[in-house]
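stage 2 :: seqdesign
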């Protein structure tokens, strides 16, 4: 599988870059750029791997009790530096003030949030916002990611979840077109659903509905 073949050279590249970084301690901006590119390659490999496994019906999931609020905060923390450098605010909205326990795959849901944040960051302008929310829906939870990037044509919304599809690709170089396809693969593995619509804050809204626990869990 292509994604698996990418992992070894990426790991090798990481080791070589660490050696190079040690020799370039006087160039912090160059080091940061190297790290960003390395991390992006690793994310692309993981996203491609997830999409490929999902297409084969073999996406591995480890369901366990987890608080989705913690996963949201983890995702914001892990993307905080990049968002700050891009001049984009990562915010939360309507998070319940009490502990929630659901039976999800924590690692995959963090990957889901990361994919949604990555997608928004490619389109949100400097000074823009990405807002993550969480709402109860009977025996499920609704995860909402809003941004204020230029809006989408709702007639094309479902195409956003196809692998390698990129809206406004000419204006946003560097995207792999895998983020939302990865998100869909993870959501479907949790027996949930995902959809795109126009956001009330002016850009794209991604809504994910996941059951609190998988069938027969």
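stage 2 :: out
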């Amino acid at each position: 599988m292509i994604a698996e073949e990418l992992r070894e050279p990426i790991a090798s590249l990481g080791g070589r870059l660490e050696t190079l970084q040690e020799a370039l301690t006087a160039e912090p901006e160059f080091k940061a750029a190297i790290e960003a590119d390395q991390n992006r390659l690793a994310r692309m490999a993981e996203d491609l791997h997830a999409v490929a496994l999902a297409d084969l019906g073999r996406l591995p999931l480890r369901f366990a009790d987890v608080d989705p609020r913690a996963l949201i905060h983890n995702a914001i923390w892990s993307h905080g530096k990049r968002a700050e450098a891009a001049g984009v605010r990562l915010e939360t909205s309507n998070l319940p003030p009490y502990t929630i326990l659901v039976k999800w795959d924590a690692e995959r849901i963090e990957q889901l949030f990361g994919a949604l944040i990555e997608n928004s960051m490619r389109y949100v302008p400097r000074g823009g916002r990405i807002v993550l929310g969480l709402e109860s829906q009977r025996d499920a939870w609704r995860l909402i990611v809003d941004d204020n990037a230029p809006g989408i044509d709702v007639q094309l919304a479902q195409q956003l979840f196809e692998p390698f599809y990129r809206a406004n690709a000419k204006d946003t170089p560097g995207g792999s077109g895998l983020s939302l396809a990865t998100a869909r693969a993870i959501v479907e593995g949790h027996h949930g659903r995902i959809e795109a619509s126009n956001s009330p804050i002016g850009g794209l809204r991604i809504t994910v509905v996941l059951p609190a626990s998988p069938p027969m869990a």
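stage 3 :: structure notes
- The longest strand covers residues 129-137.
- The CA atoms of residues 24 and 132 lie 37 Å apart.
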